[in-house]
């Protein structure tokens, strides 16, 4: 599949800085990555935002929508009450094969609910998971953590499915050969943790579709030992936000120390290229968002506070998932998994 073929539907009304920053990020991605973007939302507001940003690329297509899902609204109820909200219209474009993926920085629960209701789950997947990519101490070897918010309560088979989907994404999108999978736990031993952890450990160990490397303690998450780490959405969301907070704190401390005196300022000038690369590795803005794995359509969920660079990177993530045929690969692997399970039972 060509790198310029992806058509990405953008929820232009989703996020704290919509539509101005969302439109700016979409234009940036269109020029940088050669994707076709479709801006979904209030045409007047979108057109006003387009006028604010000069672009050499053709103007994106605009698809009208009515309103958005507010952050205080209960996701499922709001999705049903507002069928023409921007996230619903964007998901319908994927369902109708008019777009290959959706990017939204709006209500994450609403994005997941809309994806489930409109495009459905991949066959064999019980629950979708939100996967977030974090940098590790091993250069060019990020770790994919899932779930980071879609499922507060999980069963062992859900975590097993997360592991398979995460392995496929890590291999074909992140470029990791034979990705290692870890189960987030309080110790390395197979007997550690609660009943969920113990039962999941056994299932992961027996699954031939993944390379299970055992339990991952909190201190192991960013070492690069594991390429994929699975956990329930409650723990994963806490872990993700803590990691983002640490990254922001480290960047702030560096800024303060490197501007505290003349010698430090001179050193900062010399270190500028290295500091820029450091920021790219630890700043969540550079990663764009999180992929909703398990639904029958590509959906990238961005931070509510996303600005143009983050939206641009989220669109890049969507393009990569489309071009690397993540959905098709997950489908294929699950057909193999189900066939193996039937053969073992017979």
TrEMBL record:
The keyword Nucleus does not apply. It is found in: Cytoplasm. Pathway: Lipid metabolism; phospholipid metabolism. It is an enzyme of class 2 (transferase). Keywords: Cytoplasm, Lipid biosynthesis, Lipid metabolism, Phospholipid biosynthesis, Phospholipid metabolism, Transferase. Its main location: cytoplasm. The keyword Cell cycle does not apply. Homodimer. Probably interacts with PlsY. This is Phosphate acyltransferase.
